[in-house]
Amino acid sequence: MKLIVTGSLGNIGKPLTEILVAQGHNVTVVSSDRSKKAAIEALGASAAIGSIADVDFLTAVFREADAVYAMIPLSFTEPDLGDYLRRMARNYVQALKAAKTKRVVVMSGWVADLVKAENVESEFEGLETSITIMRPGSFYTNFYQSIDLIKGKGLMGKLLTLRYSGFWALLTGKTGLLMGNYGGDDRIIFVSPQDIADAVAEELVLMPGQKTIRYVGSEELTCNEAARIIGTAINKPWLKWVLLTDKAMLQGLRMAKVPQKLAETLVEMQAAMHSGKPLENFHRNQPKMGKVKLSEFAKEFAQVYQQK
């Protein structure tokens, strides 16, 4: 099959490309970074260099493809996150229609239907094509972004961002605390990008007759359990995840000079996580959990942590 992977060689894009190439598919990887061309080709895929903001570019890439994996990278330079996400979603829809693509797998998030700004799934509803919406939990790999803060190099000045999960936190490395307006004993679905890649690879070769939604997770843990697993791997077993009020979280984001509208959206995302509704929706759909446990990822995290 001729398959298109957007998102360059990111946490999902790279393992997904490796899986699809190993299965014998003709894979094209879309990247806005020309320097990634050689790495893409080294995996046995073709590179399409351009921006998802360019509908003509997307249309040309999608033409004659059997299926497309569509994801929208978060932008923290956009003051209105929701407007940006919807614009990019509409670009995808326009290109998919023009290219007459028969199958698309869209990356979303497990709180996307609960947070107005992040809910771009409805933008794809007008497509006369087979579509599956992927709703993964909180990515393991986003803990990497907390390394400098855990080492005490920053206080309240940097955001730990977890893609498409609604998970945002402030972390104070000096006291060994993770902070957010959800945390503590809140139960969260965490997920390995490898497990997401496996799920997307399965979906790309299917052709359901109606829109489907697939939740993806690897392990269910409380925030403090996750913090303890990561902390233990780096000899900081006391690492805790402190629950802030919505007001305190908003004040922290303002201190970090996050634009007001974006800050309000981030607080709304975390509040949805704290409500427990995403977890209820996850269990209601009874998804099969992935194979990679957080303790396995924590070993990789520790190696990277020690090298910093």
UniProtKB/TrEMBL annotation:
Coiled coil region boundaries: none
Domain NAD(P)-binding: start-end pairs: 7-113
InterPro entries: Ergot_Alk_Oxidoreductase, NAD(P)-bd_dom, NAD(P)-bd_dom_sf
SUPFAM superfamilies assigned: NAD(P)-binding Rossmann-fold domains (SSF51735)
Name of the protein in its database record: Nucleoside-diphosphate-sugar epimerase
